[in-house]
Amino acid sequence: MNLGLTDKVAVITGAGKGIGLAITETLGREGARVVAGSRTRTPEIAALCERYGGAFVPVDLAEAGGPDLLVRTAAERHGRIDVLVNNLGATSARSGFLDVDDAQWQRVFDLTFFSAVRTSRAALPHLLADSGGAIVNVSSVNARLPFPTVVHYSAAKAALSNLTKALSEEFAPQGVRVNSIAPGPVRTPFWTAPGGLAETAAAGTGKSAEEALDEVVPRQMGISTGRITEPREVAELCAFLASARAANITGAEFVIDGGQIKTT
Ligand SMILES: NC(=O)c1ccc[n+]([C@@H]2O[C@H](COP(=O)([O-])OP(=O)(O)OC[C@H]3O[C@@H](n4cnc5c(N)ncnc54)[C@H](OP(=O)(O)O)[C@@H]3O)[C@@H](O)[C@H]2O)c1
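YS: structure for the whole thing
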């Protein structure tokens, strides 16, 4: 299927690794002009930008001025913006609600929710200018499965999913579509990095972190397909939603979790 993304200008947040990296790769392969932002210029994002003629912007998107810098760089480079992917989001696991102080709530909301608010606010005038833009927000199953160990992250993702609907309502008449993706566990450094969640899942099971990710996590989380999601699978869904193939889809959230969520 030709997605028709050739020469579309796409801004991606949190793009240095994981899902953001996969989205940058997929959009770049589809011919989009990618402008990728995160704090660290990883070898992988540098290679992708080189291969697809994209730009990398080193930026802290949890800082109030970060989103504006990223969007301004894209607009100055290309004269327009067609697609925004609000991918950035992060958390640290806590023992429960009483273990999360104000600073931790604020940090997770800055990364997961306010980065998307600020980047959308900066990008929307550009998306509206050509009347036909798209925003894709990367939310999480935790928006509707609020685990106590990530209570702050779950609330921030629920807010992001809610914002998706509000923006879709306001801007659909002007030609900008806004959708979200809600992944279950995805094989990224969020899980696989040293000290990441895969090691936590492996603790006491006699399995390696990698084995835990392939065996323990799908079982513990009730993932019906028996495996977690690959970043490429989220990226391909994102590319479809960003494209004109999804021209009449807005205000929708697409779960990609191998059947983890059991309710209708
Ligand atoms: N992995 C999962 O299982 C899963 C499941 C559901 C939803 N999600 C969501 O999917 C999205 C991507 O997750 P991921 O697992 O791919 O994350 P990841 O592997 O931890 O990658 C996060 C990316 O964001 C960048 N980043 C972190 N803090 C930043 C900041 N302050 N400013 C700019 N960039 C920053 C990181 O680079 P730097 O640190 O160098 O800046 C990195 O490139 C997130 O919204 C996450 O909540 C993930």
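YS: worth flagging: Residues 9-186+230-256 form a domain with the Rossmann fold fold (CATH 3.40.50.720).
IM: good catch. Also Residues 14-20, 38-40, 59-62, 87-90, 111, 138, 140, 183, 185-186, 188-191 surround NAP (CB under 6 Å).
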